Amino acid sequence: MKKSETAILVGMLLGTALFAAQAQEIYFCVDSKGRKLTADRPIAECVDREQKLLNPSGTVKTKVGPTLTTKERAAQEAQLNKEEEQRSIQAENKRRERALIARYPSQAVHDKERAEALAQIGVVRNAAVNRVNELARQKAAIEAEREFYAASPDKAPSSLRRQLEENAHSTEVQNRFIAEQDAEMVRLNARFDEELVRLKQLWAQRSPAPAAASAK
After folding, report:
1. Which domain holds residue 180?
2. Same domain assignment for residues 133 and 184
3. Residue 191: inside a domain, yes or no?
């Protein structure tokens, strides 16, 4: 027999053996009635449950999951998306925690930044308070001028009334601004308080465990 014919024959034999080995792979499952079923292809009675693909030796080659309905696949996909979202949230929280502890390595640093932030708000708030006090003095001067016309109000210049209206409007604006700054201080303190709670936990995790007390 020629070498080429021998090679062809060997190839055919190997292919046949491979096909035979694949054909011997068996699907196995236990159906809803408790019956143990086997087949050379996926078992229709077990589409709702896991099936095992066995090697010729009887060992498990792989497992085939249940065939899902459209509703089940949608539910599974929604669950996977939810899990992925939770993992993303956890990763983002870890990133923020690393950034937080890098920014505030100690409570002294955190306290200092809180004080500086509050001081900045205090500066603009005090400026508004000073403006309100100035407006109050201006109003008193305008009211004093109007007293000259108390006996004959019709003779009072219209400019006095406009000045009083403008003064009242400006005072209202400044008081509203002061209230906003007060609210910002409350918000700022709440943020720093919340950060401090988490930072204390992070600092404690970072600190080495205290050494055990020496035995007496």
Report:
1. 106-202
2. yes
3. yes
- Going by C-alpha positions, the residue among 33, 24, 32 that lies closest to residue 53 is 24
Q: Do 82 and 159 have their domain in common?
A: no
User: Which CA distances in Å does 125 have to 6, 97, 150, 170, 181?
Assistant: 99, 32, 37, 15, 6
Angstrom CA distances, 105 to 87, 116, 188, 205, 207, stand at 26, 17, 20, 12, 11
Among 83, 103, 123, identify where a domain stops: 103
Say what the pTM is. Answer: 0.58
Q: In Å, how far from its chain's centre is CA 184?
A: 24
Helix and strand counts by DSSP (H, E) for the chain? 4, 4
Amino acid at 195: E
Asked if 25 contacts 53 with a C-beta cutoff of 8 angstroms, the reply is: yes
User: Do both 112 and 29 map to the same domain?
Assistant: no
Q: What is the pLDDT of residues 150-206, one digit of tens each?
A: 777 777 788 888 999 999 999 999 999 999 999 999 999 999 999 999 999 999 998
On whether the CB atoms of residues 163 and 145 are closer than 8 A, the answer is no
Structure token digits, residue 67: 């065939």
